Amino acid sequence: AKGDGRGVYRFYSSDMHADAEDRRQLEEDLRDALASDALHLVYQPVVSSVTEQITGYEALLRWQHPRRGMIAPDIFIPIAEDTGLIAQIGDWVIRTACRDAAQWVETTRVAVNVSPIQFANPGFPSTVMNALATSQLAPGRLELEITESVFLSDNADTDAMFARLKALGVRLALDDFGTGYSSLGYLKKAPFDKIKIDQSFVRGAAIKGNRNSAIIKAIVSLAEALGMDTTAEGAETHDELELIRQLGCSHVQGYVYGRPIGAAEVLERQLNAGT
Ligand code: C2E
Ligand code: CA
Ligand code: CA
Ligand code: CA
């Protein structure tokens, strides 16, 4: 498994949306995908700005469609959410990511994306607990990435869910920060360990006079004051990397450090590095 196949799934890239007909067909195919091993995870390195060591990997879902080739998650996750299939798919992702990460060097974390629909399911903490128990992965090595949209239905259930997940000992990250319904109130209430600064801020930040760097700087100082890590997402160039470091982001993720790779390749690299 090489690369994340970005070039390969151009046909169904996130810039296009499947029309209604396509969507119905994809919906049907997605039901078969789980059963037929057509889904797999790739892992993108997250690197410490301080040590420049890989501290973990984010699990990213891929669908190898039997006829259409690789389909991007931006296309099929929304379909999975609409049809309710996200529950089974999400379970599979967590179990697989925990199982894979349990093979890696013990200091390496794994981050898993959680759909707001999974998050709203009262059974979700049991799913996480079972995945940890089965894989024997230490809870502190699992990081759940949650987007701000979970706060749309802000109520006692949301608070309780955060508390239950935290009690399992897993880490929590606020994904795509700054793109959605950002309210500083969330940061006060929810026990996040990390804020992931969306790549729309990173893109172009290194261009002189660009305002994104001021925004990144503000997010970093806010996160620091709250005792949270920050990951800048989508750093592609060395200029962006340099700037992100200067602005004090604790972690960086992006093509500048590598595209997602298969679980076996992560293991292989770790074995090679260790000898
Ligand atoms: P995300 O969670 O924000 O994931 C980061 C996305 O940015 C990934 O796209 C990754 O491949 C891409 N990326 C990383 N570095 C760079 C870079 O330097 N430049 C550019 N241009 N892109 C970069 P991907 O894998 O296509 O995933 C898209 C989205 O699909 C994810 O955004 C996430 O919201 C969702 N997703 C992926 N896997 C899962 C999953 O297992 N469960 C759920 N619920 N959602 C998932
Ligand atoms: Ca993510
Ligand atoms: Ca993100
Ligand atoms: Ca995203």
Structure description:
Residues 23-274 form the EAL domain. This is Diguanylate cyclase. This protein has 275 residues and is an alpha/beta fold. The chain is built from eleven helices and nine strands. The chain has helices at residues 20-35, 73-83, 86-101, 116-119, 124-135, 156-168, 184-189, 199-202, 212-225, 238-246, 263-274; strands at residues 39-48, 54-65, 69-71, 109-113, 142-147, 171-177, 194-197, 229-233, 251-253. Strands 1-2-4-5-6-7-8-9 form an eight-stranded mixed β-barrel, surrounded by four helices. A hairpin with a 5-residue loop joins strand 1 and strand 2. Helix 3 (86-101) runs parallel beside helix 5. The two termini are 23 Å apart.
Concise account of the structure shown:
With 275 residues, the chain is α/β, with parallel strands linked by helices. The protein has helices spanning 20-35, 73-83, 86-101, 116-119, 124-135, 156-168, 184-189, 199-202, 212-225, 238-246, 263-274, and strands at 39-48, 54-65, 69-71, 109-113, 142-147, 171-177, 194-197, 229-233, 251-253.
Record the strand order, biggest sheet: 1-2-4-5-6-7-8-9
Q: What is the subunit organization of this protein?
A: single chain
The count of helical stretches stands at 11
**Structure class:** alpha/beta
C-alpha-based Rg, rounded: 18 Å
Shape verdict: globular
Please summarize the sheet with the most strands.
8 strands, mixed, barrel
Residues in helix, %: 40-55%
Question: What's the overall average pLDDT, rounded?
Answer: 90
Ends apart, CA distance between termini: 23 Å
Number of strands: 9
Ligands: ligand C2E, calcium ion
